[in-house]
């Protein structure tokens, strides 16, 4: 397979000004007729090469005249048409046929639960018709859909509906026009027998926008949260960024077979039903948060992605990093900001840090790729968002907004690069971002080493920060890093100091720009404790020699809640990892008294937001701990962590039981317990069942039967999933029977079993592959069982026999043929082989070799396996 490089980018030779599509939907074949007006952009070009894959070509006409098959060349990937150099402008009409019902890759036009839908980003439009399928070709689209009136009463495309009629043959005819020129990846078409939930939004300038959510019949009552989230997003984008919606209708369609979360097609977002449908009975509080943020994310793309799009796919972070930053800010504003910030960083550390330290490491602006679908990564999205956040921190809120205004004014309607974005930020702020641009092109997570000094005589405190990048070693150039910091006194209160401008301050954003740099603070009358990278002001790893007493101090006193939580996690990690290291010695392991008292502090602090208390008490995950070991010992980590849960559970048993009961019986909002209380209550339950006392499994079972919402039901299921015996089996059977008809809930049932640490876990998941409800053709189902097992069950996935790796290989081999995008994503865990012992390394690399030997290997899987191995 060929590698594509950013340095080879060339402007298109031709541009397509308009395209009128007529799509005749059929059960056997679907016919697509397109008429395009095309303009020459390059006077030297002699051939127009249109992208096209898996299309049956029926006819081509140029300027109305039929081309015979000697006047063009058709390959597996292109249609080459010679164009006389004198021809400045011409029309092209092409008819092709496709079979959406056979499309299991879910890219292009396909069928899901009997409905037609599309997914065109990144390069799916070429599977619908021949076109210049690249984001810098922007066209005005019209779409006419013709299909069986009974099977497809709803027929949708981008923009506004301009015509609708019944044809004599029993088919309906609907025409849509989208006035905004757009790249083909934002095209969408949906047809099916769908129900519609409607609402309205009045924009800041007083325009009325019709809001429609289309779902499978029977799901109408599960759209409230999505609709509320949409209206909140529309309002927030007006208030925070001055951005109004620009069409008369905004449509969302929920489909059950979807490769990712959702897609921001102009005016017609297509969503994975997981991010639309929710009721308290069927969805957890976490699901509710996910819906709010994905609805916001896709809506915000209307300006950051659609109105201003990417010149080429190397610029993906231009729209994704920026839009993730926007959705994170939105969710922080709608909820508890600190708790949400902690969640963002947890996800970054869990997915992006290992990616950036491993063989698939790439800068947020990749410089090359084989298959662009492999680059919708945590790096492009989450690290990309952190890069935007750093610009926000360096510029400050006001200047950041100035920069955004300039960006929108200057580039509306264009396809641009990250360079244009950074330039707008410089122009809007007057701040030089030359050095900052390195964040776009250098891979790897920087490590910051901290040294401190305090001189009581001169009352000066000095802070030395040194940057390193283990991934790039001596090839890296120092970054411009915003360091949000404070100095704390013995009570955790911020100390005033004199800044270099002579102003008094208690907090400051330092600009770390050199490899090694010292900052001096004056008028400090006693030795301070440093609070660094407040709110996680940069995506870096910190190497700071704090002992456990200092961490415990920060865990109880730090006023920055992110740092307070992080100090607790660092403290827990230190203690658990030292136990892991002593594990093989077989010595008796007990938790130090000081650690237990810091847990006591949190339990006693009744001022704390219960959601914060819950995450503060939660131990770092097995995966978090693994990241901190040079050679991962999955078994020791699991045992040590479980023992710690048990010891803490026993030590504070009566406290946890009290918290559990208090919060269970506390009704707040509309006589319902609120989400943050549920979270703390279920954390308490986790510690209680960790004691392994029968009573607490009975309590979990009781909670299951009494549960009025899915959050509580799932918490019970997770706890019982760890146990053996009759109660567990009965409840799992009951849950299945109750929710059999509800795929999103059944996904959860698969996931709990995939993540269980029961000794039979691998056998269980293998058996579940043959469960009647399991199918490899539905991505949510694959994620719920296979992905949940390989990334959420380290002990069993990495089992020494290699059976877990074989289980993964089998799935990849099968999915390679049906859905390469999903298959490729599953390769990732094997890419971490260097982190394991020699026996596992061999087993994992053998599997990667075997993957490379799969016949008809897709480009997607090839790129992932090949890079993972080398
Ligand atoms: N832009 C889409 C992702 C498309 C992925 C293509 N493989 C969803 C989003 O980021 O909003
Ligand atoms: Zn996005």
TrEMBL record:
Transmembrane segments: none annotated. Its EC number is 3.4.11.2. Pfam families: DUF3458 (PF11940), DUF3458_C (PF17432), Peptidase_M1 (PF01433), Peptidase_M1_N (PF17900). Gene3D superfamilies: 2.60.40.1840, 3.30.2010.30, Neutral Protease Domain 2 (1.10.390.10), Peptidase M1, alanyl aminopeptidase, C-terminal domain (1.25.50.10), tricorn interacting facor f3 domain (2.60.40.1730). Belongs to the peptidase M1 family. Residues 226-439 form the Peptidase M1 membrane alanine aminopeptidase domain. Residues 549-870 form the Peptidase M1 alanyl aminopeptidase C-terminal domain. Keywords: Aminopeptidase, Hydrolase, Metal-binding, Metalloprotease, Protease, Zinc. Residues 444-544 form the Peptidase M1 alanyl aminopeptidase Ig-like fold domain. Residues 28-186 form the Aminopeptidase N-like N-terminal domain. It catalyses: Release of an N-terminal amino acid, Xaa-|-Yaa- from a peptide, amide or arylamide. Xaa is preferably Ala, but may be most amino acids including Pro (slow action). When a terminal hydrophobic residue is followed by a prolyl residue, the two may be released as an intact Xaa-Pro dipeptide. One of its GO terms (molecular function) is alanyl aminopeptidase activity. The gene is pepN. Its cofactor is Zn(2+). SUPFAM superfamilies: Leukotriene A4 hydrolase N-terminal domain, Metalloproteases ('zincins'), catalytic domain. This is Aminopeptidase N. It comes from Sneathiella marina.
